[in-house]
Design brief:
Length: about 270
């Protein structure tokens, strides 16, 4: 009995071995196919890497070409360039302002500009105050000259009309000057008053000496001893006379000893600056 069992086990073992060998004979290229598949996959990965690398090279070439090409608009302006432009603009503004100040302080140009005198103030029914100088008036209307031109106002719109002092200096001699006679000169001393509504600048007193036939013998002038004032140009003067103030003066006129002086006249000159 045991002998038969051993024979059965050995036969079963031989049948298993024969089955495995037949499987190997049926798939002789299975190992080769797997190796081939692995090889093809590695080559595909390498090809993808090569393509990616080529794409990177193409993109780098495109970037290099864009950087090396000339821009259509200037885009490479630096901070230094912008700061230089700002400095140039500042210098132009300073030059322009200096020209304006020179024009404003030019006395010849100021004399050419004529502003209308303000002698009247008219109060209207709506509460408006209009200042100017009345040119013409009748029973129905008033024609007023203002700083912006002539206007016509109906009498029915007027509540009151008042006279006002002009906004300008008005310098007068307080009294007759004191005269001192020396050899070769005459000295005049006195005081002036500004009873106007505005300050006078660079106030100067001039004396003229005449002979019997009204021929000018000599003349001279001097600035008054007024208040100290500094102007926008930086000039400082002590010959300004504020409204309602007094200022003293002393003028020395040189003459010849043989001069026959019969008449003496005097004037007050001044300028107006803001």
């Amino acid at each position: 009995m045991k002998r038969k069992f051993h024979i059965f086990i050995v036969g079963l073992f031989l049948i298993c071995l024969s089955g495995c060998s037949s499987l190997n004979r049926l798939n002789p290229f299975s190992k080769q196919d797997s190796k081939q598949n692995i090889k093809e996959e590695s080559e595909a990965v390498k090809a993808d890497e090569v393509l990616d690398f080529d794409d990177i090279n193409i993109e780098e070439n495109k970037t290099t070409n864009i950087r090396e090409s000339e821009p259509f608009y200037p885009i490479d302006e630096t901070v230094e360039d912008i700061q230089e432009q700002i400095n140039n603009l500042k210098s132009r503004v300073i030059e322009y302002e200096s020209k304006i100040n020179r024009v404003a302080l030019d006395p010849d140009l100021l004399k050419m500009i004529k502003t209308p005198l303000i002698n009247h103030e008219i109060e209207l029914s709506n509460g408006t105050l209009v200042q100017g100088s009345i040119l013409q008036e009748d029973i129905d209307r008033v024609i007023l000259k203002t700083q912006i031109g002539q206007i016509r106002i109906e009498k029915s719109d007027i509540i009151s009309i008042k006279e006002i002092a002009p906004n300008s200096p008005n310098l007068v001699f307080e009294s007759e000057p004191e005269q001192k006679i020396y050899d070769g000169k005459r000295v005049f001393e006195g005081t002036v008053l500004n009873d106007g509504m505005r300050r006078s600048d660079f106030t100067r007193v001039v004396f003229y000496l005449w002979d019997e036939d009204t021929n000018l013998i000599a003349s001279d002038s001097a600035f008054v001893n007024g208040s100290v004032n500094q102007y926008s140009s930086g000039i400082i003067t002590d010959s300004a006379v504020e409204s309602g103030n007094y200022a003293s003066y002393k003028v020395s006129v040189s003459i010849q000893d043989t001069a026959d002086i019969r008449y003496i006249t005097k004037e007050i000159h001044f300028n107006i600056y803001d």
